[in-house]
Amino acid sequence: MTLAWPTDMPRCLDYPTVGIDAVLAGAARAYPDRIALQDGDLALTFAELHDQARRAAGGLRALGVQPGDVVALHMQNNLWYVVAYYGVLCAGAAVAPVNPTLPPAGLHDQLDDVKARVVISHPESVGIVLAADTQCVDEVVCVSTTPSAPATETALPERVLAFDDLLQAQPLASYRVDPELVAHLQLTGGTTGRSKAVRVLNRNLVSNVIQMASWRSGLLTELDEFGGLRMQSAADRGPHALVPGEGVNIAVAPLFHGLGLVGQNVSTLLGSTVVFTGRFDPDRMLADIERLGVTHITGSPAMYYALLASSKIGAHDLSSVRAINSGAAPFDTTSLRSLQSIFGNAWVTEGYGLSEATMGLTGAPLNSLVATPPDSVGVAIFDTELEIRDENSAVLEPGEVGEVWARGPQITDGYQNQPELTAVQFRGGWLATGDMGRLDEAGHLFLVGRSKDMIIYKGYNVYPQPLEEILCSHPAVAQAAVVGETVPVVGERVTAFVQLNRDFASESASDLQLLERELTDYVAAKVAPYQKVRSIRFVERLPVTATGKIQKNELRKSLAADAI
């Protein structure tokens, strides 16, 4: 047990053999009258959410959906997404969360890959489902609009069923979900860039939800007398611990991403109220934090960068926020410290995870004998092992850089219908993450980038993330992404794409030339000669995915196009 381990917490937890339906059932009994979901003037208590989910499960069974079948969820964040999600899981089916912004051709391929029998969509996006015209889909269901998710057209097209009709079914009351059934078919680009579906079993999901809820609250879980999962009661574990039955958060992370879905389940287990406010707007979110008394925030760096750039950042009382966690992509320490100064009562930390590990692998402990370094993503959470290995899979010593390997109960069952890819990434109970990093003596993990993003300059390995960290510490820089530019003789030239802070965004061409020199000198003073940034491209905005990850492939493509 390392010095960085949270004090007064065991290294190992108990993971009951239950499905994710036990999380919702336990919350409904522990917090029956507490608001679970808030969407404008629509609200459901935990007891009502449990009832609606079981009715949705009964309605899906009436459509012929059986345990092991696949139901795709295709809509933006809103209250009915969560009802449909738990309804699918309570029926024993697998949820395939798909990005509602995909064009019909892309959606067709993903629905066909997972063999979805039913798609539950939204009036704003159901037309894309119909245009996808996927043969495996038997039924298309459409939820109602909500204040956070309106639509220009609300009339249901032909052949589309109303989700409200499913909710008229009798609740599916006696069925208990098998922990070995697939809970999520999480669509991801993963480590190869190819779209594939990760098989997240119910036991993987339950394990990771227990791990993350206990990590953030400092409390253990137990089963109630009916087999529902709940948090044990105890005194408040400190100013930054999440308190069961008291939390409030805004659903910003997309629910089609593992960060959003696992986060929703953690909120359910902790009895936290989840509020849906519509498309992310940084000014409105700051106002909502004050209005709602938000206690904790989870999101991607892209969201936090937008909050930091808001002109309203000092106009609201943000003192209710106790904890802020960043995930899904690297977050530079300069911005992390800025966030900490703005949210003075909050504990701002960064975690690490990926879809192939359900989601969470590391985090900063609430209380430990060793402080978490600000450029670290924390230590391995309960029952999770991390190793750093070289290209031959040999384990490296602390301080040495290699690929991060992980093992634990949250490591998933591989890729759906892709045994060869599964065999490459999942070996002997371990997951080869494709991320490069190092461990210190205390067990803190420091990431240096993806293995595929490593730059080879004159035979030297150059990792982007430390260079991005240095660039972002300069007052002119809001965000930075470093990639390799293929050039003769040297192999790959270290090139940075830089998004400037507002005060520097209107610089003239001559001023930008001076700033480029200043930035390259700034980095050069802090790194070895082979690690220097050789070229800088200033951009108005870095391209990011819907989940907040910088699209480095797009940056490399732009360099290749310029070279033609």
UniProtKB/TrEMBL annotation:
Short name of one Pfam family: AMP-binding_C
Keyword annotations of the record: Ligase
Secretion signal span: none
Coiled-coil regions listed in the entry: none
UniProt keyword Ligase present: yes
Stretches assigned to the AMP-binding enzyme C-terminal domain: 467-549
Domain of life: Bacteria
Keyword Magnesium recorded: no
AMP-dependent synthetase/ligase domain boundaries: 27-415
GO molecular function, one term: acid-thiol ligase activity
PANTHER family: LONG-CHAIN-FATTY-ACID--COA LIGASE, NONRIBOSOMAL PEPTIDE SYNTHASE PES1 (EUROFUNG)-RELATED
Protein name: Fatty-acid--CoA ligase
Native species: Rhodococcus erythropolis
